[in-house]
Amino acid sequence: QQTVLTGITTTGIPHLGNYAGAIRPAIESSLRDSAKSSYFFMADYHALIKCQEPERVRESTLAIAATWLASGLDTDRVTFYRQSDIPEVTELSWILTCVAAKGLMNRAHAYKAAVQDNVENEAADPDKGITMGLFSYPILMAADILLFNATHVPVGKDQIQHLEMTRDIGQRFNHLFGETFTLPEAVVDENGMVLKGLDGRKMSKSYNNTIPLFEGEKKFRKLINKIVTNSLEPGEPKDPDNCTLFSIYAAFADAEAVAAMRRQYEEGIGWGEAKKQVFEHLNELLKDKREAYNELISDPAEIDRILKKGAERAREYAVPLMADVRKKVGIGPLA
Ligand code: TYM
């Protein structure tokens, strides 16, 4: 029995890259095999580590939840919830904090990168501006995963180290207190879609090069028109394999359509025409979902209701597991 679990930090508005790289494959996997249980959640406690703007966290939580739902997530098959609705996550996180080695956290990429920044900027203190939340971020993530005994965690390459740390912490707990947690595996799609953004670098909010998944039609067209190309004229053959526009199209079209576009490139389609076709294809593909998304975000109370229901279901698993953990570590009722 597989348990698949993954989360998205609630600090931004989903873009084409999040969708093609994380949301779409997760939904497809959840629909493929009904014996498998899936847990997908909004990591809003993780958001607090890098964002102290409450309005932004709220807006992002709503946008990410609505994106999953508008993209065809079936809440009857998937346990879909908000991390902060599960108090057992923070409780387990503390217990794991008391088990995790500090030296292990010292090696976490996110923490090391922040220290490195301080050193490069010649800050007086290498830990300047670094919160304990950032430092122990991998422990919170381990709690997310171990609390549901997840077996498979689909993530991008940037998260692999966190999964290794999760296994390390889980193993240490099992060793100290007896077999309790399943050690999860990261599932990284090797030809994993790392979608490129407007400027040809990886599509990412931190590069400011994203195309929001459910941007309104007019702005969406404008953004597609802004994707960098080169100065080849119509009639000159173009190289689809080194082309951001083509790779975006390929992430959203079937094999036959991709082959047809490839031929058009070789025959020298003009950039204006290629962009028009990419826009039309994507717009057609997304427009019903966009409409559903807009309806969903206009009713946050309904989203809350859906997430609460998901949290109740998640807690059916989490509460007994936490009771076992408490007992194993020696806290709770004496009799
Ligand atoms: P986050 O919110 O940064 O990213 C969510 C997921 O999307 C992947 N990703 C990408 N994949 C392909 N192409 C891209 N351009 C791209 N950008 C982002 C990320 O690798 C990730 O899988 N710590 C996690 C959230 C989290 C979590 C968890 C994940 C909290 N608890 C438990 C799994 C299990 C994070 O910040 O992801």
Automatic annotation (TrEMBL):
Top-rank taxon:
Bacteria
Q: Where is this motif: 'HIGH' region?
A: 10-18
Q: InterPro entries, per this entry? A: aa-tRNA-synth_Ic, Rossmann-like_a/b/a_fold, Trp-tRNA-ligase, Trp-tRNA-ligase_bac-type, Trp-tRNA_synthetase
Q: Which reaction does it catalyse?
A: tRNA(Trp) + L-tryptophan + ATP = L-tryptophyl-tRNA(Trp) + AMP + diphosphate + H(+)
Q: Which GO terms describe its cellular component?
A: cytosol
Assigned keywords, A-Z? Aminoacyl-tRNA synthetase, ATP-binding, Cytoplasm, Ligase, Nucleotide-binding, Protein biosynthesis
Residue positions binding ATP = T9, T10, T11, G17, N18, G156, K157, D158, L195, K202, M203, S204, K205, S206
Q: Where is this motif: 'KMSKS' region?
A: 202-206
Q: Where in the cell is it found?
A: Cytoplasm
**For L-tryptophan, which residues are the binding ones?**
D144
Biological processes annotated in GO: tryptophanyl-tRNA aminoacylation
Record CDD domains: TrpRS_core (cd00806)
One GO term in the molecular function aspect is: ATP binding
Record carries keyword Cytoplasm: yes
Enzyme Commission (EC) number: 6.1.1.2
Chain's role? Catalyzes the attachment of tryptophan to tRNA(Trp).
Quaternary data: Homodimer.
Q: Its family?
A: Belongs to the class-I aminoacyl-tRNA synthetase family.
- According to UniProt, the name of this protein is Tryptophan--tRNA ligase
The record lists the organism as: Natronospirillum operosum
